[in-house]
Amino acid sequence: MYSRYARRYAPLVTMRTTPPTETEKAAAAPPPTPAGRAVPGAFADVTASASTLRRFLHGLPGVDAVGLEARAAALGTRSVKASAKAYAIDLAISMIDLTTLEGADTAGKVRALGAKAVHPDPTDRTTPRTAAVCVYPDMVATAKEAVAGTDVKVASVATAFPAGRAPLEVKLADVREAVAAGADEIDMVIDRGAFLSGDYLKVFEEIVAVKEACRQARLKVIFETGELSTYDNIRRASWLGMMAGADFIKTSTGKVGVNATPANTLLMLQAVRDFRAQTGVQVGVKPAGGIRTSKDAVKFLVLVNETAGADWLDNHWFRFGASSLLNDLLMQRQKLATGRYSGPDYVTVD
What we know:
By secondary structure, the protein is an alpha/beta fold.
């Protein structure tokens, strides 16, 4: 599916409008994440004790909040050429983790969500599939059946989502249950209380333990940036998560008042860019919560391209945790195809 592949050497604003050839796909495919690393060797001394870890994290450069927000706002004014809009919409669709995380979730609802992930627009089978379906651990097997035979991943929240208030043994059991049921990806939440208390080593060790429990499943580490209070804390959490073995760093659970913003996502993109420059290890980014329109999605794609680079313009390295976004993307896609705005009655209500 061509929307899974990034344009590696061209800005988003001049993105191509036709699928790449098989040769181009192979050339553009992202390098595999090095397997089995919990801590890159360069950081072994840093994570040896609570004091060395604290010294490292508090030694990171302070964040210029005014400059960060101004940069995010400036990038948000960039426009995508009309010829590239269709490509950008398809790329955004292919990056969505289609999610249902409600106490009233039923097997029927999860099956319907899986069907929508596989065929987001049943009237147009050229529509890209979403990246994943994200559910609670007890719904993983149902979701797995719903997307069987496709490349749609099944992600599961774990570690006492969304608050993370449980003993480590309970959190690890949560992860193991989801992985045993077939989860391809695990979205964990950090212990924000421990982090805000300065107990960084506890947070680090929990992420390492969860990563081990994930086995072959990829790990997304959720910071709940709205509760971390400062940009400096978000930068520290980003480096802490990456050093502990996160495959993705994720802004939010979507369950609090402040979720993904252009500024906090920009800061995390800077972190993954700098981490790869220092270690050679590439880590993905997932903004979640509050991204609702196609215009919003394109702004975030520009942030990715202009900050981390085109290597991250692929659903292996960037995701949207924003289910309501999909319907707006589908309506905009229909408008481009037909010249008419279909409206919300032409897409399913999740």
